[in-house]
Structures are given as structure tokens and as C-alpha cells.
Amino acid sequence: MMRSGYYSIKHQQEQVGDRQTFTLDHDLFGLESKTLMGADYNRIHFDLHSNAPYKDVVTGGTPIDMNHPDRGEFTSNSPYRDQFKTTTQQVSLFAENRTQLSEPAVAGHWCAARHRAPGPRRLDRRHPQ
């Protein structure tokens, strides 16, 4: 086995979210009806650190003894640094209704709506905008 270079990549990710719903059984113009409403929230922070652009490629590689590997030292001419950060936020409100229009063997009428906030945002540390 040959080592072709030294690559170091680290990801950090944090995710927080929650979803809440409630259901209301009721009559609508004398017909059996069920309404569901809710909200959903999700936020993800993601950081990438590495020694990109990986300029340390070893031509021909260096051998690794599979029976007695030497951990050695990590050496790189490319600095290990922050590459980019992203924050993705998703917020939605939703509602749907099912009204029984006929006998239970036939599906009732239903409708649904959902709103989603824009995202994601990215901060590129190598190419700031």
C-alpha cells in the first residue's frame, strides 16, 4: 500500500429542530371532518475545515507496512484552516383538512398548504463575497 499524500478533513455539524401538530375532529356543514395544523422548524450549522487544496501529492507515493504501520507525523505544506460555514434554516406552517363526503369506503376530499422560508446561507472563507 502506498500513501499518495496527506489529507486532513474535519466536519462539525449541529442540528436543532422540532415539529408540532394538532388535530381537530369536527363537523363541517354537517359532514364529518378532520383538520390537522402544525409547524416545523429545523436549523443546521455546518463547518468544514481541511488542508485543501491538497498540494502535498507524493509522486509515486510512500510505502506503508501493512503488518507494522507507523503512525508517523502528519505533515502538510497546505495549511489546515476553515474552508466554509453554512447555516440552513427551514420553517414551515402546514394545514390540511379531510372531509368525509360519502361512505367510509370512498376517500374524502382533502387539501393541504405549506410555506417554506428561504435558505441556505454559505460563508466561504477562501472566496469571501
Structure, described:
A hairpin with a 2-residue loop joins strand 2 (9-28) and strand 3. The model has no long low-confidence stretch (mean pLDDT 82). The chain is mostly beta strands. The protein contains no helices and 7 strands. The chain starts with a strand and ends in a 5-residue tail after the last strand. Strands 2, 3, 5, 6 and 7 form a 5-stranded antiparallel sheet that branches. Strands 1-4 form a two-stranded antiparallel sheet. The chain has strands at residues 2-3, 9-28, 31-50, 62-63, 81-99, 109-116, 121-124. It is elongated and about 80 Å long.
Biggest sheet record = 5 strands, antiparallel
What is the average per-residue confidence, as pLDDT, rounded to a whole number?
A: 82
Percent helix, as a range, is under 10%
Class derived from helix and strand content: mainly beta
Topology, element by element:
Layout: E1 2-3, E2 9-28, E3 31-50, E4 62-63, E5 81-99, E6 109-116, E7 121-124
Brief write-up:
By secondary structure, the protein is mostly beta strands. Helices cover 0% and strands 58% of the residues.
